Amino acid sequence: MFHTYHVFHTYHIYTHTHQVRCSWAVVRPLVWSALPFKLINDAAQFAGPYFLQRLLESVRLGHPAREGYMLASAMFVGLVAGTVADAQHFQRMMRAGRDNGGGGGVCVCMMCWCVGVLV
Question: What is the C-alpha to C-alpha distance for residues 7 and 1, in angstroms, rounded to an integer?
């Protein structure tokens, strides 16, 4: 009885790690392609407060209006870039989850699992 449980438990652990490796192989390109967008989004989170502080400082010190317009434009561009990067990151990560959880990803994982069991 112990031997049967031990063999089943070892087989279960082997197939689980193999499935995790296979799943990672399927979604790895999408996860890596989403990483730059996440970094851009995180960096852009600082754009709004930074440029707003500079804009208020510019107004307080009485700098020319063109400097204020440039700072406001830079704040707008930074926030739009962050929003676009956030949407791209979200889209790629959701696509990775879909590919892993249904459709082609499961078929690929089952093929890898079957090959692993047969070998």
Answer: 10
**Contact status, residue 111 vs residue 19, Cβ threshold 8 Å:** no
Q: In the chain, what percentage of residues exceed pLDDT 90?
A: 42
Torsion of CA 81, 84, 86, 92, to 10 degrees: -140
Q: Which domain holds residue 76?
A: 2-118
Q: What is the pTM of this model?
A: 0.62
Pick from 60, 86, 84, 54: nearest CA to 72: 54
Structural domain count, the chain: 1
DSSP-assigned letters across all residues of 19-32? HHHHHHHHHHHHHH
Which of the two residues, 84 and 14, has the higher pLDDT score? 84
Confirm if 26 and 113 have CB atoms less than 8 A apart: no
Helices (H) then strands (E): counts for the chain:
4, 0
- Per this entry, what is the length of the chain? 119
* Single-letter code of the amino acid located at 49: P
